[in-house]
Design goal:
By secondary structure, the chain is an alpha+beta fold. The protein contains seven helices and eight strands.
Length: about 325
Amino acid sequence: MDFSIAWQKLNQIGRDLMAALPNVAFGIVAFVLFMLLARGVRAGVQRVTRKKGKHHSLSLLLSRLAYVAMLILGVLVAVTIMLPGFTPASLVSALGVGGIAIGFAFKDIFQNFLAGILLLLTEPFKIEDQIKYKDFEGTVESIQTRATTIKTYDGRRVVIPNAELFTNAVTVNTAYEMRRLQYDIGIGYGDDIARARELMLEAMRGVEGVLTDPGPEVLVVELADSTVNLRARWWVNPPRRADVMDAQDKVLEAVKNKLTEAGIDLPFPTQQILFHDQTEVTDGDRRRQREGWPAGPGDVPEARASVPPLAPQPVEE
């Protein structure tokens, strides 16, 4: 067998490889230099962002993005040195339609990634903030590039995609230093509203944790079926969940005890059914009734108790 052709091919490959060795060496050196440069850029971005007061998650994200960008640039430079015919434009053209297909396939991932960056940049909430999103409420544990995790008050973890948090309404309970709480309390229609208001304010002012500036207030909000509803409102600081629940527990206990001691009625819902006709003489005593009509001036129908019973009628056979 004639191995001359194969031997020529191997010789040609060897000569090409030896000719390419300097380029490969220079390419490796360039990539190593870019790796060192990427680490320096990452450290520099972290220092700059922390000096500007940016949150740790944002600082970490920006430093990682800068590190990856420098590595990608280093790879392109190294490949260009190793393969002189290679250019970034040829890479883009090589991706072509495949890049579009990849973009559609990873659309949700890219959307969440961009939303995560915007959340970290705009900072509508931070780590350790307590937020409420739809049916989920808890403390923010981490804001990552894909999703945000919160720890609910009953000790569960919820992972929410960043795109949902960025495009939907989110309630940040700890955005401000103070938070106002409120609770509706019903008193009887026969009770003195001004007296009940005074007692409720006195009770709230005596509770530890209730702020005096702004101070508590009591408003009449509804004339309900069975009660006159008074809305107690007070402010607390800090507005975290544990402090809110503790303040509400103390305020409701103090208000209830204060009203009960003063003889203020706290009625429960009741319903009254009257079996009578208002047009008959045998109706109830209108001088004393309070079922929704006044006694009126002049003669009023006699009370049922004052009307003699009807004599029994003989039965005809």
